[in-house]
Design brief:
Blueprint (H helix, E strand, L loop, with lengths): L3 H15 L6 H12 L5 H12 L8 H22 L3 E2 L2 E2 L1 H4 L2 H17 L6 H28 L7 H26 L4 H28 L2 H4 L5 H4 L5 H9 L2 H10 L7 H14 L2 H19 L7 H15 L4
Antiparallel strand pairs: 1-2
């Protein structure tokens, strides 16, 4: 059983060997750039780890892992464009470093490259992987559309928000793990249960991401602190604060999410104060714990050695406590 760093090293080495800048440079340069920014590489690592945990050489899952990583970064390029985000992992976003059209086209090319990685698998594995990938990719797009729609809606519910982050973030984490199980030719039951584990973990991961966006250290987090607040995103923090606040405080919060002041720091600080005094920040941490426990509960149904079950449990708990 490898450590996460060992999975990451193998993945990064293969990624560097496989994704090279070629002509036209304006298309492939941005792809190489965003991949070079690194990041946690959580999703492809989970693909490799799952394959390994089911007793199969992780190299067999490498191309599936690369497909997951390219798709994830494709979605980041387009998300940054839609959010008009200046930073990604502490560096300029692709559309800022190049331009909008380059960002769109390079992102599209990454999606196509991701699909190509499945071509190395035998027909039955290719079918199962491509089918899961297509379903997941469409759900991610649906989740992104929900996210966009929520910006202009005043009646978003907490359950709708959870569905949005489930589609936008969690399904890809679940799919990444299920791909590892598919390549390892695990049973259908094990494939489905590892998917449920990953999906619940993904919801906890995104809730933690939302929390860190408001309360994280930008030097650790690698993104603009308060970005969701400036974009007026109706996160779990916002919706819970709105629900739990006094009428006066709720009206102030709604007003703050309708303006774009010249000095954004005052808006960010005041919103964060409301998140804390309303109990929304604490409620968000409790929700993170809830979904982490839901993920851990399904582990008992997965046919892997106990030590590997414990490793997955520890991995989930470490995500819950992360600061980046």
């Amino acid at each position: 059983m490898n450590s996460l760093d060992e999975y990451r090293i193998e993945l990064t080495q293969k990624l560097t060997e496989t994704i090279v800048v070629k002509e036209p440079d304006q298309l492939y340069g941005p792809i190489s750039y965003i991949l070079s920014l690194g990041g946690k590489r959580l999703r492809p690592i989970l693909t490799l780890m799952t394959c390994d945990f089911f007793g199969t050489d992780l190299k067999k899952a490498m191309n599936a892992a690369l497909a997951v990583e390219l798709f994830h970064n494709f979605s980041l390029i387009h998300d940054d464009i839609m959010d008009n985000a200046p930073l990604r992992r502490g560096k300029e976003t692709v559309h800022e470093k190049w331009d909008l059209n380059t960002g769109i086209l390079s992102g599209d090319a990454m999606l196509i490259l991701a699909y190509q990685f499945f071509e190395s698998y035998e027909p039955l594995l290719f079918r199962d992987l491509a089918k899961l990938f297509s379903k997941t990719a469409l759900q991610v797009c649906e989740g992104q559309q929900y996210d966009v729609d929520f910006e202009t809606r005043d009646d978003v519910t907490l359950s709708e928000y959870i569905k949005m982050i489930d589609y936008k973030t969690a399904v890809l984490i679940g799919a990444a793990m299920k791909m590892g199980a598919i390549v390892a030719e695990a049973s259908e039951e094990c494939r489905d249960n590892i998917y449920v584990f990953g999906r619940n973990l993904g919801i906890a991961f995104q809730l933690q991401d939302d929390y860190l966006d408001a309360f994280g250290n930008p030097e650790n987090f690698g993104k603009q602190t308060g970005g969701d607040i400036l974009s007026n995103k109706k996160t779990f923090l916002y919706l819970t604060a709105l629900e739990n606040s006094s009428q006066e405080q709720a009206e102030e919060l709604v007003h703050l999410f309708s303006v774009s002041p010249k000095d954004p720091s005052d808006k960010i600080e005041r919103v964060k104060q409301i998140f804390e005094t309303s109990g929304a920040s604490e409620a968000t941490k409790e929700e993170i714990t809830k979904y982490t426990h839901l993920a851990n509960d399904v582990l008992e149904k997965i046919d892997i050695p106990e030590e590997k079950r414990d490793a997955l449990r520890s991995f989930g708990n470490s995500l819950m406590a992360r600061t980046v």
